[in-house]
Structures are given as C-alpha cells and as structure tokens.
Design brief:
Length: 138
C-alpha cells in the first residue's frame, strides 16, 4: 500500500527542512488550514527521538502562531490523527465562531453555509511561508 504523504507533497508547500514540511490545504471553508508533515514515514510522535519530537512541535507551534497573527481566528484546532493516513502529520486549523462547522470538528455535521472569503487575506500562502521562516529563525 502506498502512503499518500510519502508519495505526494500533501498540499501547497509553504516551508520545509530535512525533517518536516508545512503545506497549505485547499479547503475553501477553512482558509489557512495547514498540515505539518514529518518527512520520514513514521506513524506516531513516540516513534521520534526527543530532539525530533521537540523540532516537530516547534514547527507546529510556529504555524499556529503565524495563523493567529495573520487571521485572528477565534480558535486554532491542533490534531494528529493518522487513522486514514498512518504517516505522522499535524493539522493546524484556524477556526471562527461562524465557520461552517463551529463548534463541531470540521469533519462533523455542517452547522451553516457561510462565505469564507472575508477571512482570506491577499497573498495568504506567501505571508504564511514568510512568517514561518521568521518564527523558526528565532
């Protein structure tokens, strides 16, 4: 069986290093929805040594920080599921009180139909990419 996250980038590449990459997911209801994907095929955080776990979480938190700064969401959802794709990756999802599923998970029952463009800043992918680089250079 082929692993989707080994075979493909998994979204629009925003940033990467030798250990992980950050991609933007094309999800019209959720602008800024990113994934942090570990480059090697492992299933769980505990498959990583302490230094790699720390690095992965540092990247996840940098993405969260950047999305909060750029989009001012009401909440950020962080999830590492892997039930369908057993390759370590974190979902970093900006949430708004009036988004399509709030307060449910984005995979839950749709609560309302809403236009998402009002939350989409111009050149969002470039801004996220640049800010992640700045955050991680600190």
């Amino acid at each position: 069986m082929t692993c989707e996250l080994c075979a493909t980038i998994g979204g629009q590449l925003l940033w990467q290093d030798a250990r992980c990459r950050v991609v933007l997911i094309e999800e019209t209801d959720y602008p800024g929805y990113c994934r942090v994907i570990w480059q090697a095929h492992v299933a769980e955080m505990t498959d990583l040594d302490a230094a790699d776990r720390a690095h992965c979480l540092r990247v996840v938190l940098a993405v969260e920080s950047v999305l909060r700064e750029l989009l001012a969401p009401d909440k950020i959802n962080l999830a590492s599921l892997g039930n369908f794709t057993p390759h370590l990756h974190w979902h970093v999802i900006p949430r708004f009180r009036d988004d399509a599923h709030f307060p449910q998970a984005i995979w839950g029952l749709r609560q309302r139909d809403v236009p998402r463009l009002r939350y989409m800043p111009e050149n969002l992918p470039e801004k996220i990419s640049r800010q992640i680089g700045i955050q991680l250079a600190k």
